[in-house]
């Protein structure tokens, strides 16, 4: 079955609205630790490697086990494959820690924090690297579970269209954007994350995309 690789023109404005909302637009600056959150997106390992070479942090952690959406692509686990990519591209192996048990963003943060404490890595600031549309949720989760740390969010710097091309499935990307938008309020209500403002235009774009049946990643 051929997957659509172009965002439908009827929904482009709404998709762009959500895409921009989830980007925290943080200015990158040196921090104590870089943290790469596991997913299906190898772009996390790419930006983590790039920022290490730019001396944005001296220590890098990759965190992630496997999920149904990643086990085929990363059979040895997300963090393991990310580490292999980074080492192959010049990051010293002894600069990388891996956390291989986390299966959601909350566990990514909790388990990474414990791992850094175990290795006595003083951590007052982190660059948290994720899929582009995961930035806001990752930030809100980190500030809930690790409130004292200074958090900067980053992703592999691709345009929306280039990101869709890299994933190879426009519907999947839109579904994920819609799902992460729902989770901003839902996870705050459940106590998993701090609340985030959701502007009216974002709420309207989200509602239209739900009506257009981009719902596979919604929490039922």
Automatic annotation (TrEMBL):
InterPro entries: Cell_Envelope_Assoc, DUF218, Rossmann-like_a/b/a_fold. GO terms for cellular component: plasma membrane. Gene3D superfamilies: HUPs. This is Uncharacterized SAM-binding protein YcdF (DUF218 family). The lineage of its organism: Bacteria, Bacillati, Actinomycetota, Actinomycetes, Micromonosporales. Residues 46-154 form the DUF218 domain.
């Amino acid at each position: 079955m051929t997957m659509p690789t172009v965002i439908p023109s009827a929904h482009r404005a709404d998709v762009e609205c959500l895409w921009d909302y989830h980007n925290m637009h943080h200015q990158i600056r040196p921090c104590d630790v870089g943290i790469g959150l596991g997913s299906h997106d190898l772009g996390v390992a790419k930006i983590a490697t790039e920022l290490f070479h730019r001396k944005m942090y001296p220590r890098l952690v990759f965190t992630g086990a496997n999920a149904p959406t990643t086990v085929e692509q990363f059979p040895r686990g997300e963090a393991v494959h990310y580490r292999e990519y980074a080492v192959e591209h010049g990051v010293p192996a002894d600069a990388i820690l891996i956390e291989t048990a986390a299966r959601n963003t909350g566990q990514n943060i909790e388990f990474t924090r414990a791992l850094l404490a175990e290795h006595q890595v003083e951590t007052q600031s982190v660059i948290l690297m994720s899929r582009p549309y995961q930035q806001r949720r990752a930030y809100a989760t980190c500030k809930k579970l690790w409130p004292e740390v200074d958090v900067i969010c980053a992703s592999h710097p691709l345009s929306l269209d280039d990101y869709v091309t890299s994933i190879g499935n426009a519907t999947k990307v839109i579904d994920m954007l819609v799902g992460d938008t729902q989770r901003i309020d839902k996870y705050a209500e459940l106590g998993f994350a701090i609340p985030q403002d959701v502007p009216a235009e974002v709420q309207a774009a989200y509602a239209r995309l739900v009506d257009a049946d981009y719902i596979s990643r919604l929490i039922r």
